[in-house]
Specification:
Helix content is 25%, strand content 31%. The protein is α+β, with helices and mostly antiparallel strands and 414 residues long. It is rod-shaped. The chain starts with a helix and ends with a strand.
């Protein structure tokens, strides 16, 4: 039988025991029944038959059709509802942004806050070796100098603990220190009054130095009587000293008047200037009469022509006036015979036409009118002759010891 099985009479077939895979089963497909109308009841199937129902495939929707439909729906939405929707979305976004900012600030403040005491206490404990593991003596000796170094550098530890906020604080710029400056001011000629930024003081006279000025630009004005004022803008740097020299232009003529002895009053064109020699008086151009007067001395006068920018010096030596306390009139007998008084003193004889004029010597009025003779001590005297209706006469005479001075004048009608 085995030979029969292995013989090729079987047509090369494979036995059941030699099969490794079963042949695939053939699926029997049954066509679905035709759809029944909505108004008809489905027919009953025969018994012992299997019916498979398949749902119809949904048609695929194209993306372009979906987009066009969405656009149509958006266009149908009322504009007011659309505005409300956009506003609501903006409010929601704003709320979310605020919450995020508050959250970040909370994290930053938590980073700036110091560590709790427990953490600071834990770090030294962790850095120290356990008591159960003692270090060798040599290692202990080398570790002792390193301990102060670790304690002397707490700042970097705190900076690392602060993290990102520490870098931001270190980057904060430091305001520069402002150091006041100085200004040295001079003028040509010197003695000008100075004002800085509209402020002045009687002591601010050139040359001088003004300290304590803030850095920046300052307005400086120098002025002096008889000269044009000069205004400049000066830059003062921090901690430095600026130098200013102004050249003033003379506007008027200058009278520099002095006298020997000093302290005489100065008159210009008959008006008292209120100044005592030595002094400077500023005058307009033209001719001016200068008079220097001091009690007990003869007046000194000068008529001078002045031009702008010119400086005129007038320095007279004042002559002392004689003493009029011992003045005495001389009669006819003394004129003929003279005497010891006439030899020790001087004689003055005054005659006028017409007669009867009043005579004053050093502003001392004589009792007798002209013609008159009188004796005086040696010296300088001022004689004034006046008469009603006539021009007054002003004379300066010098009386010498034993000498005689004569004044003979014809008075002129006014």
């Amino acid at each position: 039988m085995m030979a029969e099985d292995d013989s090729p009479s079987r047509g090369g077939g494979v036995s059941f025991s030699e099969m490794t895979e079963l042949p695939p089963l053939k699926e029997v497909y049954v066509a679905p029944p035709p759809p029944t109308p909505a108004f008809e009841q489905p027919a009953s199937h025969a018994p012992n038959s299997t019916v498979y129902e398949y749902e119809p495939e949904k048609p695929k929707v194209q993306p372009r059709e979906v987009a066009e439909k969405a656009i149509k729906e958006i266009k149908n939405v009322p504009p007011r509802l659309m505005v409300y929707s956009i506003a609501a979305a903006a409010v929601v976004i704003l709320i979310i942004a605020v919450v995020l900012v508050l959250h970040v600030n909370t994290l930053n403040s938590d980073g700036d806050s110091p560590r709790p005491a427990a953490d600071s206490a834990t770090q030294p404990a962790a850095s120290q070796p356990a008591p159960s593991q003692p270090a060798p003596p040599a290692a202990t000796t080398q570790a002792q100098p390193a301990a102060p170094v670790a304690e002397a550098e707490p700042a970097p530890t705190r900076a690392v603990a602060k993290g990102r906020n520490a870098k931001r604080k270190l980057a904060t710029p430091v305001a520069p220190v402002v150091v006041p400056g100085q200004m040295s001011i001079d003028s040509v000629p010197q003695g000008a009054q100075v004002s800085v930024d509209g402020k002045t003081d009687p002591s601010w006279v050139t040359p001088f130095t003004l300290p304590g000025l803030e850095p920046g630009q300052h307005s400086v004005t120098a002025s002096k009587p008889g000269y044009s004022s000069d205004t400049r803008t000066i830059e003062v740097s921090s901690g430095s000293k600026s130098f200013v020299i102004t050249h003033l232009t003379q506007l008027m003529a200058i009278l520099a008047v002095s006298s020997t002895p000093a302290g005489a009053n100065v008159y210009i064109d008959g008006k008292d200037t209120g100044k005592l020699t030595p002094a400077q008086v500023f005058l307009d151009k033209g001719s001016h009469v200068i008079l220097v007067r001091k009690s007990g001395y003869l007046d000194e006068t000068s008529n001078t022509q002045f031009t702008l920018g010119q400086t005129v010096n007038f320095s007279p030596t004042l002559r002392p006036l004689g003493n009029v306390d011992d003045i005495k009139t001389v009669g006819k007998m003394k004129k003929l015979f003279g005497g010891k008084e006439a030899q020790a003193m001087g004689t003055v004889s005054i005659k006028t036409q017409p007669k009867g004029a009043q005579v004053a010597v050093n502003q001392h009025m004589l009792d007798k009118g002209s013609p008159v003779d009188f004796t005086l001590d040696p010296g300088n005297y001022v004689v004034d002759i006046t008469m009603s209706g006539y021009v007054s006469i002003h004379k300066i005479i010098t009386v010498d010891k034993g000498g005689k001075a004569v004044i003979d004048e014809v008075l002129k009608h006014e």
